[in-house]
Amino acid sequence: MANENVLLQVNNLKKYFKTAKEQLHAVDDITFSLERGKTLGVVGESGCGKSTLGRTILNLLPATSGEVIFDGVHVENANKKQMSHLRQEMQIIFQDPFSSLDPRLSVSEIIMEPLEIYHIYPTRQERQKRVEELMDTVGLARRLANSYPHELDGGRRQRIGVARALALNPKFIVCDEPVSALDVSIQAQILNLMQDLQEQHGLAYMFITHDLSVVKHISDDILVMYLGKMVEKCQAKELFRNHLHPYTSALLSAIPVPEIGAAKDRILLQGEISSPINPKPGCRFANRCAYVCETCLQKEPEMREVVPGHFVACHRGEERKKERKDIYEF
Amino acid sequence: MNLLELKDLTIHYFTDEGVVKAVNGLTLSVGAGETVGLVGETGAGKTTTALGIMNLVPDPPGKIVSGEILYQGEDLAKKNQMEMRDIRGRQISMIFQDPMTALNPVLTVGDQIAEVIRLHEELSRADAYIKAAKMLEMVGIPSERLGEYPHQFSGGMKQRVVIAIALACSPKLLIADEPTTALDVTIQAQVLKMMNDLKQNLGTSMILITHDLGVVAETCDKVAIMYAGEIVESGSLEDIFLHTAHPYTKGLFESIPSLKKDTKRLKPIKGLMPDPRSLPEGCSFSPRCPYVKEKCALEDPQVTEIAEGHFVKCPYWRDVHLNREEL
Amino acid sequence: MSEQALSSKKKSMGAEKFHAFMKNKLAVAGAMLLIAMILLVALSPVLAPYGYDEQNYEVARQTPSFHHLAGTDELGRDIFSRILYGGRVSLTIGIISVGIGLLCGGSLGILAAYYGGITETVLMRIIDILMAIPSIILAISICAALGSGIVNTMIAVGISSIPTYARVFRSAVISEKSKEYIEASRAVGAGNMRIILRHILPNSLAPVIVQASLGVAQAITTAASLSFIGLGIQPPNPEWGALLSGGRQYIRDYPHMVVYPGIAIMLTVLALNLIGDGLRDALDPRLKR
Fold first, then answer.
1. Percent of chain A beyond pLDDT 90?
2. Counting beta carbons within 10 angstroms of the beta carbon of residue A89, is it exposed (0 to 12), middle (13 to 18) or buried (19 or more)?
3. How far apart (Å, rounded) are the C-alpha atoms in residues C197 and C176?
4. Which residue, among C2, C4, C287, would best test binding to B if mutated, counting the most B CBs under 10 Å from its CB?
5. Sheet holding B92-95, edge to edge
6. Domains in chain A: boundaries
7. Going by DSSP bridges, is the β-strand pair B230-236/B310-312 parallel, antiparallel, or unpaired?
8. Which of A167, A210, B12, C4 has fewest C-beta within 10 Å?
9. What number is the average pLDDT over the span C267-289?
10. Which one, of A329, A246, A253, lies nearest residue A293 by Cα?
11. Which residues pair with A68 in a beta bridge?
12. Does residue C3 lie within any of the structural domains?
């Protein structure tokens, strides 16, 4: 890659789960790149493989095929030594602040764990000092250092998760639905915190969520997934102004907007998401799509650059582009 | 007369760790055919209120300490479990957040709908199944699937089945506790549309418990915002969304990232929900309130009607009101 | 949760469980009974009025009296003293053999559950084979092969309890290892050993502690049965099972010779079972009020 700024390059990444008879295509042919200090939003409904994507990139799950290049290093076949180094650079924040913290460890023990593993600070005092710094950074009162996760509320617990992820000064954090389990007022606190941290530390985020309003707020680029496939990828603003894939349009129009009379002309999708087990040829969205044509059932659509910087996997992407131009005039 | 009127309802849980003040002096009314949205965050006491109406508060440790639950003029709080059993399902129904656990996995969907029907109506088994099939069609599931088991249905379908069970005996009031929270947005849109249609066709009144102001905007006629077991603001949809008057309501709106506007930073409500075992003195929102005045921490504010049907529990609502208009 | 509530009530998980346990009156009674037994037994050289092998034919087969609280046996040995001394052996066997079972069964169960796949299949099939043999028969054959004696009895009883602990550990570990915090610590670079020792082990101990407290009681009875059929502790060393066994031929005429050792076994088992139940209730979060 020529671009110096690219931190993470993912090429044709696939992750299949094998069961006795079937093959579940959880992540199927994902390609994207992420620059330093930027945020990529990954959007999709449950079962679209967005969490699996995050874990496969971090090599918490082995990839079936494809490449993940982080800062010039191939993650997918990194040896133990490389991996140990990579673990310091790439981190993850989990959705559920209840199950992602060991209930038997105190707050400071949880945040200290990565520091102990990498022996960055030789003495316990120095580690303790670093833990206190981290607690200040994420806005946890120091007196909570000896509390246990079950004594704290969801927002505070999620701050512990953020502090743990920050402990090793990573460059990249996978955020797997970090605010979905939180109340709106707390959610806003955590989102602000994450934005501040990004600015201060130059972090790159991969922000996985099903909540489109959150993803719009925080992302530079957005990747929309459906049943393991990428369906649309472009800049965040472009996606909300000029979404070309029928699934993206339906997804956007399905969001309940807190305004009176906002949802009058809603695109209602028929049917439900199937599971990506032994997928049939053709477009995976075809059975729910209002724009379906013959080609869609036979040939799987490729990601194509329909507008500069705007990729969409739909046979009728160009037609949709014209159609949308009529609506939005630009 | 309103279908349901809660007057000064107070429900506490008496636990080893102290008294949990879940619902404190809640007053709310639901008219015939009306949908009231009960909005609040985790721990605001929404679910306890719902359980209170159904007389299902787990006792011990829970207890309805005071207040009246007037359903068609009768006080449900005074009824015993036998009398309540007759009302539940037939007069008032409830649907829960998680459709996965609300259905019995070893009975067919048809059995479960028919069971409720036969519990309240004297119908033969065959007639009950015919009615069950009708109910299933009504929520948009082909009646051939009557003999299938819950695991054969997807999440959205299960929630439809739960709704079919709840509506099987044509109750006058439906309490829906976060009915779409566990569903994906596209499925949520389907279920909400169905619920809206059903409500119009059947004329059922509904209390919709949710934390999602977007869902409220789509389905409700009236809104009540709950905080720490109290209703801090209530009124019509327009009152709440266009003439926001309580600092907490305003805070909620500002916490949500907007799809329409580009905001650089969100304005979260500072601090955390108070512990219901030791609520702050005076106004329980005062420690988090940006408009807080000295008086707030001293005395509990009165509820004032600032416009017809628009009630606010904050004496400084004018400050908030002005601010909201600027937006 | 408000700030005050947090600082005023900072209890560790352990302290909270201890509190829950202390609320269970039966369990506390069991614990006190067990402590009393252990004290009595540990102080037997001081407390016992006679030596355990002190014979006195003049007072053989006496019924309980002020001089001999539990009577005497056919050789005129004081049964009360023999119960006290015998308790040392019985309780030691109980605790150590549970230790053996925990250590071996625990490691097998944890390894099987954590690594899964072929490791699990092989290990668990071996456990299944052990399980297919009734534990008492297994213990008898081990004892027969190794010979009798305190150490061999402990080994025999310990080995026969391995399958139970392996199973309990395995199911506890399986439910823990799929939790997100394990993945979280792997994401910060923790190795397998660290994950097992620091995260999985402490979190899967609850059901094992319960099983172990009941297991001590079981081990004592197994050891008693071994002695009863003459394979365990050899005379003149006293052991509760051996006492029962020695007295059984006189049961018709001198029931006190078996009743008192029997009561000792019963009280210990009762105490341990009460403690086990109490621990299970205290450690099970679903039973939290």
1. 38
2. middle
3. 13
4. C2
5. B92-95, B173-177, B205-210, B35-39, B222-227, B230-236, B310-312, B304-307
6. 6-226, 245-330
7. antiparallel
8. C4
9. 75
10. A246
11. A10
12. no
> In the sheet that A73-74 helps form, which strands lie side by side, from edge to edge?
A23-35, A6-18, A65-70, A73-74
C10 assigned to some structural domain: no
Which residue on chain C is closest to A109 by alpha carbon?
C198
CATH of domain A6-226: 3.40.50.300
User: What order do you get walking across the sheet with B62-71 strand by strand?
Assistant: B18-30, B4-15, B62-71, B74-75
Rounded to the nearest 5 degrees, what angle is found at the Cα of B147, between the Cα atoms of B145 and B149? Answer: 90
Residue C77 contacts A where some CB pair is shorter than 8 Å: no
B255·A187 Cβ contact <8 A: yes
Residue owning tokens 């959705």: A95
Distance CA B134, CA B142 (A): 9
Report the distance separating Cα A227 and Cα A223, nearest Å.
Answer: 13
**A81 contacts in C (CB within 8 Å)?**
none
**A132/A145 Cα distance (integer angstroms):** 8
Joined together, the tokens standing for residue A279 give 């997928």
Q: Report helix angle C150-177 to C79-115, nearest 10.
A: 40
Helices (H), ranges, chain B? 46-53, 81-87, 99-102, 109-120, 125-138, 155-167, 185-202, 213-219, 237-242, 247-255, 317-326
What is the per-residue pLDDT for B326? 45
Contact A191 B258 (CB under 8 A): no
Closest C-alpha to A258, from B263, B255, B180, B186 = B255
On whether the CB atoms of residues B51 and B32 are closer than 8 A, the answer is no
Q: What are phi and psi of C251, to 5 degrees?
A: -60, -30
CA distance B164 to B140: 10
What is the tens place of the pLDDT at every residue in C92-115? 888 899 999 999 999 999 999 998
Q: Is there a contact between C189 and A87 (Cβ–Cβ < 8 Å)?
A: yes
Q: Which residues of B182-202 are buried (b: 16+ CB within 10 A; e: fewer)?
A: bbbbbbbbbbbbbbeebbeee
- Right CATH for B4-91+171-326 from 3.40.640.10, 3.30.70.100, 3.90.550.10, 3.40.50.300: 3.40.50.300
How far apart, in Å, do the first and last CA atoms of chain C sit? 18
Burial code (b: 16+ CB inside 10 Å, e: under 16) for B42-66 equals ebbbbbbbbbbbbbebeeeebebee
Domain assignment of residue C208, given as a range = 17-25+40-47+67-287
**Residue among A113, A158, A177 with most chain C CBs within 10 A, to mutate:** A113
Assigned domain for C145 exists: yes
Beta bridge mates, B94: B175
Name the residue with tokens 């905080």: B227
- C172: domain CATH number is 1.10.3720.10
Q: Which residue has the tokens 């739960």?
A: B162
For the residues of B14-26, what is the DSSP string, one character each? EETTEEEEEEEEE
ipTM of the complex: 0.81
Chain segment A249-290, per-residue pLDDT in tens: 888 888 888 887 765 567 777 777 777 777 778 888 888 888
Interface membership of A36 toward B (CB under 8 Å) = no
pTM of the predicted model as reported, rounded to 2 decimal places: 0.81
Q: How many domains does chain C have?
A: 1
| pLDDT beneath 70, residues of chain A | 1-2, 262-265, 324-330
Helix or strand holding residue C7 (H, E): helix C3-8
Cα distance between residue A53 and residue A72, in whole Å: 20
